[in-house]
Design brief:
By secondary structure, this protein is α/β, with parallel strands linked by helices. The protein is built from 21 helices and 18 strands. The chain folds into two domains: about 250 residues, 2-enoyl-CoA Hydratase, Chain A, domain 1, CATH 3.90.226; about 200 residues, 2-enoyl-CoA Hydratase, Chain A, domain 1, CATH 3.90.226. The relative contact order is 0.08.
């Protein structure tokens, strides 16, 4: 007289659930180069750490005697597991059951995943592969009425952005609410060749817009590599899981915890002699910022986000003596490193991310200002740039500015809060002002140049005269810059600063006064 029969029935139903959409649909899914949702979870998490919730939820049919004769599992799997020993929530779509659509789901499971992460204050990883929305219009036939749509769990989705790290992986053809779930995250990754993302798929686009496109043409990586809808591209699903694990390694499990500090293996006093010459005296000569950063931050610690969107600005995580930090830097190879509408949005979002999770920010500044010209005016660059500056001014996390070269105009001035303590250090290559001297002379001395019999000689004379005045040493004499440093001392200085920064963080724990939006 035990409960063994009921346990046996549970185990039988679990075996049915593990079959997912059945052998034929699973084989078709895998033939497209994709893993099943259960394989994905196993690959993402630490070995044997997944604890599934609601495995036997699904659609069932019973005979006249009440015996189960047919079972289709819900096409959403939820549970907890561990990544590098830290507990996380995982929710994944099963495309082998009704293509991951909501009309094959038990929507409460998806809502429960968001609630579980929210209330337990655990990071959540969404494995998105399907629409996840309202399903088919066949609903009209089966139910006899339509409905006013609601985004399920969206109150929790929005709230989680200000509480816990949220990662979304786009692993298949993702549309509608599924695409929104990818975008509503702190970090999103899309797998090339096997994943596409769109508001609506090709049939709807053909009907509504008259555009005949394949899924790849409409929402493949050639569209979204630089669209800003996702952060990173992955070569494979395994590469996407690796990026998700790496992203989470820099962040706390919630806003009530500190970022995880590792034992440093790179000498904090390491000096790289190449830094003294990475910026050439010819101010028009660019340099490769991605080659410079490893000279300063812990070996192998740099993790970049959103490389191809707003390319003039680089945003990444890195470590200083084991301490996670956010890093902003300009890429002079793209628009001279200036602020475009896209790079301004990128800065705003990244600074808000660091503020949300209490990561100190290192700003490696070489900022010529907002990019000029008609196309940029038409994008409203000034408003986007001002929003980025506002994010920097609103951030309460410790921030330090290393002025590598240029600081010009409103954009350059906005790279740090000049009305606070304003920790900043300049390299001897520093060059700053309201306008670059070369262009400013043309404006300030326009009448004299137009009236001169030898305008080219006069221009050269003016530039030569101002060359010594523009020296950063002159600015330091007036205490306009607090300290000019040897570029080779940058890493030791930052490794000392980061300890002071982390000492301040415990007072900042909890939600930010302005919670992050996607």
């Amino acid at each position: 007289m035990t409960w063994e029969p009921e346990i046996n029935e549970l185990r039988r139903r679990e075996k049915l659930a593990y079959q997912m959409g059945g052998e034929e649909r699973v084989a078709k899914h895998k033939s497209q180069g994709k893993l099943t949702v259960r394989e994905r979870i196993s690959s993402l998490l630490d070995e044997d750490s997944f604890h599934e919730l609601g495995a036997i939820a699904g659609k069932s049919k019973y005979d006249a005697d009440g015996q189960l004769v047919e079972f289709t599992p819900a096409n959403f799997i939820v549970g907890t597991g561990r990544i590098n020993g830290r507990k996380v929530v995982v929710g994944g779509d099963d495309f082998t059951v009704r293509g991951g659509a909501a009309d094959g789901a038990i929507i409460r499971k998806q809502v429960y995943a968001e609630r579980l992460a929210h209330d337990l204050q655990l990071p959540i990883i969404r494995l998105v592969d399907g629409t996840g929305g309202g399903g088919s219009v066949k609903f009209l036939d089966t139910d006899g009425h339509t409905y006013i749509p609601i985004n399920p769990a969206w109150d929790l989705v929005v709230a989680n952005m200000g509480r816990i790290p949220v990662v979304s992986l786009c692993l298949g053809s993702v549309a509608g609410l599924g695409a929104a779930r990818v975008a509503a995250s702190h970090f999103s990754v899309m797998v090339e060749k096997t994943a596409q993302l769109f508001v609506a798929g090709p049939p709807v686009v053909k009907y509504g817009m008259g555009q005949v496109l394949t899924k790849e043409e409409l929402g493949g990586i050639q569209v979204h590599r630089s669209s800003g809808a996702i952060d990173n591209i992955a070569r494979s699903e395994e590469h996407a899981f690796e990026q998700a694990r790496r992203f989470l390694s820099y962040l706390p499990s919630s806003v009530w915890q500190l970022p995880p500090v590792e034992t440093g293996t790179d000498d904090p006093n390491r000096i790289d002699d190449r830094l003294i010459s990475v910026i050439l005296r010819n101010r028009r000569t660019p340099y490769k910022i991605r080659e410079v950063l490893p000279m300063i931050f812990d070996d192998g610690s740099i993790f970049e986000m959103g490389r191809y969107y707003g390319g003039g600005t680089l945003t990444c995580f890195a470590r200083l003596d084991g301490h996670p930090v956010g890093v902003l830097a300009s890429d002079p190879y793209v628009n001279g490193g200036g602020l475009t509408a896209e790079s301004s949005e990128k800065i705003e979002r990244f600074v808000d991310l660091c503020q949300t999770f209490h990561l100190p920010i290192v700003n490696m500044v070489d900022q010529p200002g907002m990019v000029i010209g008609l196309p940029n005016e038409m994008k409203g660059t000034i408003r986007k740039g001002v929003r980025a500056i506002a994010a920097i001014y609103q951030a309460k996390v410790p921030m330090i500015e290393i002025i590598m070269r240029r600081v010009f105009g409103v954009g350059g001035a906005g790279m740090s809060n000049g009305h606070g303590l304003n920790l900043r250090y300049a390299w001897p290559s520093g060059d700053w002002g309201s306008l670059p001297v070369e262009g400013g002379v043309q404006v300030a001395y326009r009448r004299e140049l137009e009236a001169s019999d030898s305008p080219e000689e006069l221009l050269k004379e003016l530039l030569d005269r101002m060359e010594s005045v523009r020296s950063p040493i002159r600015t330091a004499e007036a205490f306009g810059i607090e300290e000019i440093i040897d570029p080779r001392d940058t890493r030791p200085l930052l490794c000392d600063w980061v300890k002071d920064a982390y000492a301040l963080l415990p007072k900042m724990l909890g939600p930010s006064s302005h919670e992050m939006r996607p």
